Amino acid sequence: MSGLDPDRREDVALVSRAADFAARRHADQQRKGAAREPYVNHLAEVACLLAETMGEPDAAALVAAGWLHDTLEDTQTDPEELERLFGPRVASLVAEVTDDKSLPKVERKRRQVEAAPHKSVGAKAIKVADKTSNLRSLTASPPEGWERQRIADYIAWAQEVVAGCRGTNAALEDRFDRAVAEARGTL
Ligand code: ZN
User: Fold this and answer.
1) Taking a C-beta distance cutoff of 8 angstroms, is the pair 66, 52 a contact?
2) Structural domains in the chain?
3) What global pTM score does this model have?
4) Is 182 a catalytic residue?
5) 45 CA distance to ligand 1 centroid (A)?
């Protein structure tokens, strides 16, 4: 491994370990869309969106958190485990984008809109990447039984959440806007 300086080697290792961990934890899950894509495809897409648009110094932590962003919400993973394996920065980013699952779905969705403007820059980026990926799969493979109105409502809600995240990453926001335009085009 000559050629890669120690910091970069640690960055590459961190992101790779996060991808490995997320793929294993979500191994038996699929996306809601009719194509039943493996859930890991969503995580890879979110991580890629972040990697391609972020220029901040701790980009590796952000991309690792992108891989892990649904582990607390959708798998048997606790915050202490993330902190032990990936450090406090990654663990706190994932915690920031995790909904309180004890609340009803409508309330969780309302809180996402309300909380978005108060999130850290990194958490906002994960939110925008997550909603971009969700809209893309809604366009490519809508869930069975989702009527036009339900899709339109989802798009409108995603836009409300992202409205509270704007002003931190223009390149990422641009990708979100394109995903909205495409999703609207299918209605
Ligand atoms: Zn997600």
Assistant:
1) no
2) 6-185 (1.10.3210.10)
3) 0.95
4) no
5) 10
